[in-house]
UniProtKB/TrEMBL annotation:
<feature type="binding site">
    <location>
        <position position="293"/>
    </location>
    <ligand>
        <name>Mg(2+) 2</name>
    </ligand>
</feature>
<dbReference type="GO" id="GO:0008360">
    <property type="term" value="P:regulation of cell shape"/>
</dbReference>
<feature type="binding site">
    <location>
        <position position="278"/>
    </location>
    <ligand>
        <name>Mg(2+) 1</name>
    </ligand>
</feature>
<feature type="binding site">
    <location>
        <position position="291"/>
    </location>
    <ligand>
        <name>Mg(2+) 2</name>
    </ligand>
</feature>
<protein>
    <recommendedName>
        <fullName>D-alanine--D-alanine ligase</fullName>
        <ecNumber>6.3.2.4</ecNumber>
    </recommendedName>
</protein>
<dbReference type="GO" id="GO:0008716">
    <property type="term" value="F:D-alanine-D-alanine ligase activity"/>
</dbReference>
<dbReference type="GO" id="GO:0046872">
    <property type="term" value="F:metal ion binding"/>
</dbReference>
<feature type="binding site">
    <location>
        <position position="291"/>
    </location>
    <ligand>
        <name>Mg(2+) 1</name>
    </ligand>
</feature>
<dbReference type="InterPro" id="IPR013815">
    <property type="entry name" value="ATP_grasp_subdomain_1"/>
</dbReference>
<dbReference type="InterPro" id="IPR011095">
    <property type="entry name" value="Dala_Dala_lig_C"/>
</dbReference>
<dbReference type="InterPro" id="IPR011127">
    <property type="entry name" value="Dala_Dala_lig_N"/>
</dbReference>
<keyword id="KW-0547">Nucleotide-binding</keyword>
<keyword id="KW-0464">Manganese</keyword>
<keyword id="KW-0460">Magnesium</keyword>
<comment type="pathway">
    <text>Cell wall biogenesis; peptidoglycan biosynthesis.</text>
</comment>
<keyword id="KW-0961">Cell wall biogenesis/degradation</keyword>
<keyword id="KW-0963">Cytoplasm</keyword>
Amino acid sequence: MTEPAPSPVAERPAEETPLRAVVLAGGLTFEREVSLSSGTQVVEELARVGVDAELRDADAELLPGLAAAPADAVFIALHGATGEDGALRAVLDLAGVPYVGSPAAACRLAWDKPAAKSVVRTAGVTTPDWVALPHSTFRELGAGAVLDLIVARLGLPLMVKPASGGSALGAQKVSRVEDLPAAMVSCFAYGDTVLVERFVDGVEVALSVVDLGEGPEALPAVEIAPESGVFDYTARYTPGLTEYHAPARLADDVAARAAQLAVRVHEALGLADLSRTDAIVSPDGEVHFLEVNVSPGLTETSMFPMAVEAAGHDLGEVLARLLTRRARAQRP
């Protein structure tokens, strides 16, 4: 029987003093509770591998706290705008605080789903055709006329979702023309612009990427099989409504293409350290990019930890390696 390959993060160089990390979680977004779950899990994983980690919220006490008791590095477990639109990271840059994750400009690009789709399509990545519709256009030109044009161009069914945001909040599959106006209105509750894209039937996969110092590496794909057929907010966070397979049940050549797509997206958008790309594998084996997450969920039931485990890595060691690299990069 072949012995499993050793994890590349099994040995972390010893530090003269224990690494001190601050894990940011919470924030004032729709995804606050998910973020707190991610942050708590990160702190527990880091403590297990000997890292002194403190959980903190992104509030008015954050910067004074970091100034009074500097961390070696910060891990951002914030979801939604607070952790993913680049603004907080820009402030951390101003304060000279090292953090794990993508730089502010790359986060801003990834956060804007239509812009990210444009960039990755230019890089040769397949992604469903789409239209981005601001609320002002929807209102000023008349909803009916605009929606008729969208259906004529993209057909049915459609996937309707906020142009920014995570956890599939506001995302809906629309199969009937008469259901489209309500879906649009629902999405506008989460942001000023809605992304309407052609729905691609197939197997949904989460494609995680991590860079431990030797360039971005795609972890095994995680297959997502929601009972309803759509991986929306309810399917993500209601126990028993979604089945996961790690690694995904894909043919070897399809799995290889999915891995290549995830790395290409990571590089095309200028991401760093870790990311998770959401994609659909159609029945013909084509892999279609949907969106990318710069702050993937890290709860006990999130896909990034599943992928880490499927790769034979230890999650705590992976997180510690990422923090150690950022801490060392900051030192003179």
